[in-house]
Amino acid sequence: MTDASALLITVTGRDRPGITAALCAALEEHGARILDMEQVVIHDRLILGILVSLGSDEAPLRAAVDRIAHETGMFIDIERMASRRAGSPVERHSVVLLGQPLRPAAVAAITAVIADQGGNIDRIERLSRYPITSFQLTVSGSNGIHLREGLAIEAARQRVDVAVQPANLYRRAKRLIVMDLDSTLVQDEAIELLAEELGCADKVQEITARAMEGELDFAESLRERVQLLAGCPVEVVDRVRGRLRLTPGAPLLARTLRRLGFTTAIVSGGFRQIVDPIRKQLGLDYAVANELEIIDGRVTGRLLGEIVDRAGKANALRSLARTAGVPVSQTVAVGDGANDLDMLGIAGLGIAFNAKPVLRAAADTTVNVPYLDAILFLLGITREEIDAAELDAARGRPDDPV
Fold it and tell me: Do residues 117 and 142 make contact, with C-beta atoms less than 8 angstroms apart?
């Protein structure tokens, strides 16, 4: 609720030390109470807003502010704000906008949708300049479901990524992240590389594509593909593992999540013989995957244990959440295919990463840029925070506790 005597003090000009201190000292001297305050510096240009309530005559405060403006060379405006009565809570959402590049036309289109949905942009913060451009918009006053639907359509039209989440404490409180392996943490499909080594790539690719699009039951398709690998020497499995290419940004994502105290896991419909070494390479906590039966140094064409399929991935997420002591609502799941649908569906935040259409349509948000560390921006983590942590690590400083 804004008081009838509220004043908004807006400061603009070239940034210099001491401006905020001088203003706050003047506010204290004249009995003002700070209701809200926000500051941003863009290329050494300061924009500072302070909302205050004043129980006494405002003329002396205005004179003090005018004096500070003259002494500092800043432009300072004071505006009386209309009263606002308390009512029903206003919905607030965080809208993260990512693009490579992020064109002004796309920003215009996205913000127009926000306005059409009755939303007001209260704050805009830059999250990153490279390797992609991303901004976080804090939006109030719009229905979350309608806002998400409208922005999803416009984002596809503008070829940018938009994520809509409630603007609350839980957004940065998500403490478990699980990721698919093939075409997510790595750029390749391991089973297709195995098939390539054995000369049956075309058949395996056909089955894989139909499974990922949701046309085939994953468990059935996996058994069919594994049968084609019968007789494969274990040395070939090792060789294929060495051929897998990490997705750009995957090591940085893993390091940053570790510094932030996240529990991390791979949940894959692939094979433990390939997944486990990558888990160790990236320093992740857990891995859940299928296991190839290997006898006398050769793949038999069969699997051991229960198959990690679409339902199995969701069960793995629940189990990992219990192990980590994290509510499922505070988890993040990342994947690319139809067998990730259930996992993304139950997670607190489901992210479709360069995904098949069936998953993009169902996920909370999509990321179509080729950098896996873009996921950090969806959590409200800035590139400056990431770079600072990397620099501290390079200098041998301990990571700051989060």
Answer: yes
d(CA 314, CA 62): 60
Catalytic residues: 180, 182
Beta pairing, strands 331-335 & 176-179: parallel
Q: From CA 41, how far away is CA 169, in angstroms rounded?
A: 25
Cα–Cα distance for residue pair 17/226, rounded to 1 Å:
66
Contact 117, 146 (CB under 8 A): yes
**What does the alpha-carbon distance between residue 95 and residue 107 come to, in Å, rounded to a whole number?**
12
- pTM exceeds 0.90, yes or no: no
Please tell me the distance from the alpha carbon of residue 317 to that of residue 43, in angstroms, as a whole number: 43
pLDDT tens by residue, 229-284: 999 999 999 999 999 999 999 999 999 999 888 999 999 999 999 999 999 999 99
Kindly provide the residue ranges of all beta strands, DSSP E only, lying in 257-380, ordered along the sequence: 263-271, 286-295, 298-304, 331-335, 349-353, 365-367
The partner residues of 11 in beta bridges, in order of sequence, read: 48, 76
Residues 6+ apart with CB under 8 A from 61: 7, 26, 27, 30, 32, 54, 78
